[in-house]
Amino acid sequence: MGCSAGVFTRASARAKRTYWVIIATCVIVGLMLYLYCILIEFAMAVILKKEEKISTVSDTLPDNYVLDDFITKFKELYPKDWNKLEKSYNDHERKTKPGKSHPMPTPEQYLKNALNIWKTKSN
Which of 11, 53, 92, 111 is the least crowded, having the fewest Cβ atoms under 10 Å away? Predict the structure, then answer.
């Protein structure tokens, strides 16, 4: 008779182990990719060399400037960074479910916060 019950059982057990190894590997790889995406999203600064740029913008303005002057000058000196801020904010808005909030402030508020932090550090 062609196949004994013992051989069939060993082959079946081997196939089950292989199946579970493949499943476990897929799950681990999927989790690693997910964590990598989260890490990249949160690790990347929205504005590179932010303090340097805040300082440069502040130095080009008169001493009694207001926030609107600062934002206007920032947009003028660093249009790519301003666009990146807007894009990042819009991406967060788009990905957030209705009725929920996300931690990213508006671009104007982001610059206001960055300016206040820079002023605190520079004094």
Answer: 11
